[in-house]
Structure formats: structure tokens, C-alpha cells
Amino acid sequence: MTAIETHDLTKYYGDLCAIDHLTLSVDNEIFALLGPNGSGKTTTVLMLTTLLRPTEGTATVHGYDCATEGEKVRKHLSYVPQDMAVDIRLTGRENVIFFAKLYGVPDPRRQAEEALEIMELADRADDLVKTYSGGMRRRLELAQALVHNPAVLFLDEPTLGLDVAARKKIWEHIQELRGRGMTIFVTTHYMDEADKYCDRVAIISRGSIRAIGEPKALKAQLMKDVITAIISGEYSPVELSGIRYLGRKENEVTFTAENGREALPLIAESLSALGMKVHSLSLHEPTLDDVFLNVVGSSDEPRSFNDKQFRVMLRRR
Ligand SMILES: Nc1ncnc2c1ncn2[C@@H]1O[C@H](COP(=O)(O)OP(=O)(O)OP(=O)(O)O)[C@@H](O)[C@H]1O
Ligand SMILES: [Mg+2]
Fold it and tell me: Are 195 and 215 contacting, i.e. CB atoms less than 8 angstroms apart?
């Protein structure tokens, strides 16, 4: 049975199309829905967890229809929302036992204990949650989510607002859960974390999937090197033979090329020739941020120059 399947899943809020015909199949993996603020990540999770009715299309979790078989769906999933879902006036243990009872698990105390152990919270379980750090609170939410041993776990922005060490720890726990056979559907706008820790990612923008696959495969769609130029002045996009323009974020212009070292001076010269001031140039291997820029791109259409035109342009300076 596939953990999560959607077919043409669509959500309108009034006239706003938040999710536009999303078709997905997720199973036995850590799958990340990646996208900027407002791209539709939470809306998707809410539909998959039966908390929001789709306008059109279907979604199933563990084989059950999210719209018509809500109770069965909810038996097989857990959901940790984007905002905190713990009661800070209770102890860690009380929070988890409360959830265990909500889920009707056979032995709430024992299962709560096990979940606290997995999340490395056993030694602080009797402290009030208001004394926990942000990272500990997130782990407590994960412990709550684990207590009924769900097949599918939904985590909306699990590392938002945490420091680097706490993020790493959360991801290590997520990977451990994946090792226990759970399917994990996570949303994030941290591309670097998705790259490092997820089996597959889908990049969404304005409610549509723009790219989907293993991070490595998505990065391989770009050329070997990525070059970023920080510029000022009136920007006009440019593309040279062998150097592909990826897009622009404010004053940062990005290109990809097979040989970045050779491309650097050509890019610098062409941007200067077109009247831009180049403040710095840097070279790196492709990241998911670059993939995002490539697939979502900017609306600028680059002016293309072949080698001959490029030489003419430089001579005219
Ligand atoms: N209840 C609602 N009513 C109307 N519009 C909504 C509602 N919830 C979300 N939206 C809109 O739908 C779009 C998608 O929102 P959503 O919260 O799913 O995005 P997101 O990717 O989770 O963003 P973030 O990264 O900020 O959490 C946005 O334009 C948002 O303003
Ligand atoms: Mg969200």
C-alpha cells in the first residue's frame, strides 16, 4: 500500500489557487515539499492530514481517502504542525501520555516512555515544558507524534527557528524514524537541509510542482559549476555560449557552466560590457537553491551571445 498518493489535488481559497493539480506518490522515504513562503506547503499537508477539504482531486494516505475516510486515515498518520503543539504548563511526560490517551493506545504510560526514550527526552520528562529549549520542544512534539506508531508522519517546517545543532539533531531523529519503516513527509524552505537529509524532494512554487526527484539528480540537471555575481547598475540578463543564465535574486545574478574557472572572466567581462558594475564573483557546486532558481527562474529573458558576437561586444567597449 502506498503511503501517500495524490491525484490532481487542488485547493482554492476563494479565488486564490493555493494548490494546483498536485499529483504525487510518496512511499517508504523522507520526502520534502520545498518552497518559499506562501507556495502551498501547509495547505498540502492540511489536506493530506484530513484537516482541510480539497476543492478538487483526490488524496489517499495508507490507501484510505483523505476526504471520505478521515477516521481511518488519521489512525495511520501523525502530524506535527508548523506552530507549537505542546502544553508548556505540563511536564514532557504528561504531554506525551495525554496524546497516547487521545490515540487510545493500549498502554499509554509504556508507549509514552518509549517515545520519550527515542527522542532522548527521558531524563527531562518530569520537568515542565516551559523550561525546555526550542529544540527540546520540537523533539517532544515528535515524541507525541510517535506514540501510536503511525505509518506516515507529516512534519510541517520541523526545524523552523532552531539553531544549527538543534536542527541537526531533529534531522537525525527523522532519519532514525525512517529507519524504523515510517514514511516521512516534511515541508521546509531550507533547501540545504532537504538536500542533506531527504531521499526525494519536490520543489513547489505557487501551488505547482516545478521539479521532483532525488536531490542529486535535480542538481545534476545543472552544469558542473555555478557562478554567482554580485552586481549593481541597470541589470540586463546575458547568456554566453557554454554559460547558461539561471536567474537573479535582487543584485545576485547566477549562471551555470561546465568549467566555472573559465567562465568567471567571461561573465565578468560581459556584465561590465553591458554596463553593470561587478562587485564580486563566486564559484560553487550546484545546490538545491540553484535548482530552484533554474526551475522557478526569473522572468528575465537573457540576451544570448555566441563567441563571435561576444568578441564584437567586447571590442565595442
Ligand atoms: N485560510 C486561508 N485563507 C485564505 N488564504 C490562505 C489560507 N491559508 C493559506 N492561504 C494562502 O494560500 C497560499 C499558500 O499558503 P500556505 O500556508 O499553504 O503556504 P506555505 O508554503 O505553507 O507558506 P509558509 O512557508 O509561509 O508556511 C498563500 O498565498 C496563503 O496566503
Ligand atoms: Mg506553511
Answer: yes
